[in-house]
Amino acid sequence: MSEPVLDALREKITRVDQQLIHLFAQRRSLTNEVAETKIKHHIPVRDVRREEQLLVRLIKTGQEAGLDPHYVTQLFHVIIEDSVLNQQAMLAQRANPGSALPLNRVAFLGDKGSYSYLATQKYFSRRPGEVLEIGCQSFSEIVSKVEHAEADFAVLPIENTTSGSINEVYDQLQHTQLNIIGELTHPIRHALLVSGDTQISQINTLYAHPQVFTQCSHFLAELGSVEVKTMDSTSSAMLAVSELKRDDVAAIGSEAGGKLYGLTAIKSNLANQKENHSRFIVVARDAVNVPLQVPAKTTFVMSTVQKPGALVEALLVLKENAINMTKLESRPIPGNPWEEMFYIDVEGNLSDGPLQQAIDALRKITRYLKVLGCYPSEEISPTKVAAARALTE
């Protein structure tokens, strides 16, 4: 194919892409109008049956146009998720009219390019106001920034699908008066980052955060005798490799973050689990009101009395009130050997009757209970529609 012909085809593709961008923007504008109607009539944000019907029609239309059903499904999963999250953000802003700030000062771990930095950008992209990033070197520093009004919000990683819970963050939550006001799940895609034309066989030293080394332990085993140097964040690891400018060192971090430091990815998907995600929480000094139309989560911490079956008794309270528990984490109570503090995430709004009843009942049978926050759930599970069903209906 000659260059002029190829250039002409590329120009046509560019024009189509631009049209798609304008159509996506038009669709988002329409969903915002839908959100206005839902606010007015107190209609839940998500209508799974409507989403199923929409996907069935789109899969059929796509097949008629020669498109693979899985391609259409994946594309509209992203579009539906964006629509749901934007509507939830709009409802949350209406329920908390004084929370919108012209400048959001956000503390997070590391510096530009860290996974916490990328999660911060993702979360606040749906919120009004500019973002002032405040990079910190430890979780205690992050929490302190918000407690002392040096930051308005903090973004903290709480768990990872490969390495599990981040205990240090749970310990910080036990001793702070801050409130959880939001959450998000962010994909973690580890890449091997170098500053020049480096081959894997040349690498003698590897820089990364301890959690990253845990998540990539299989890859490290394949490397063999390579010195590992732990850093306080992925951004620190990338900065170190960038400044060293040697062909025998590398960092593990995100490809997007590496580009901010002039690093190149020479190998991707390093995590033990290919579906590797981290869940982050957003904390602030003041709690937020969550509209009942928005799916909500509530996190609380409790300690039970020292008797057999005390934890089971407490969990039965959740069952009796039809409350779904999504997370149970235990941490030692400092100064009280062999006693545990239990952190619990449940689906539900603290303003709703069943959860209110459950919390009231738990207060009566536990030694200590504190609600850490009620916040919008941003874990948007994809609408599941089998391609075969879509083609036969």
From TrEMBL:
Residue span(s) of domain Chorismate mutase: 1-91
Gene Ontology molecular function: any one: prephenate dehydratase activity
Compartment list: Cytoplasm
Pathway: Metabolic intermediate biosynthesis; prephenate biosynthesis; prephenate from chorismate: step 1/1; Amino-acid biosynthesis; L-phenylalanine biosynthesis; phenylpyruvate from prephenate: step 1/1
Domain (ACT) ranges: 299-376
Manganese keyword on record: no
Record-linked InterPro entries: ACT-like_dom_sf, ACT_dom, Chor_mutase/pphenate_deHydtase, Chorismate_II_sf, CM_dom_sf, CM_II_prokaryot, CM_P_1, Preph_deHydtase
Reaction catalysis annotation: chorismate = prephenate; prephenate + H(+) = 3-phenylpyruvate + CO2 + H2O
Pfam hit, one: PDT
Main location: cytoplasm
Entry EC no(s): 4.2.1.51, 5.4.99.5
Keywords associated with the record: Amino-acid biosynthesis, Aromatic amino acid biosynthesis, Cytoplasm, Isomerase, Lyase, Multifunctional enzyme, Phenylalanine biosynthesis
PANTHER family the UniProt entry points to: PREPHENATE DEHYDRATASE P PROTEIN, PREPHENATE DEHYDRATASE-RELATED
Family annotation (NCBIfam families): CM_P_1, PRK11898.1
Entry function: Catalyzes the Claisen rearrangement of chorismate to prephenate and the decarboxylation/dehydration of prephenate to phenylpyruvate.
Full protein name: Bifunctional chorismate mutase/prephenate dehydratase
Source species: Alteromonas aquimaris
Lineage, opening ranks: Bacteria, Pseudomonadati, Pseudomonadota, Gammaproteobacteria, Alteromonadales
